[in-house]
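Researcher: I'd like a structural prediction for the single chain below. Treat it as a standalone chain; there are no partners to consider.
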Amino acid sequence: MEEDAVLIPGDLELHGVAPDPDDDAIVSCAIEGDADYIVSGDTHLLGLGEYEGVRIVEPAEFVRVLAERGQPAS
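Model: Treating it as a single chain, here is the predicted structure.
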């Protein structure tokens, strides 16, 4: 997995994005890293649904997305 990881410097700090302030760091990382998805079971994050083009989905939904793209879930 390390060979597929992208390290993000953490320069972007969003505030007031998520209902739970601790989740702002997750959203900031996703935006800074140009992510397409945040995969989470956190209800506060899931409640956002999407932020600046980053979709926030449950793991089961992400597995479906991967299946649709013909990619393995693991």
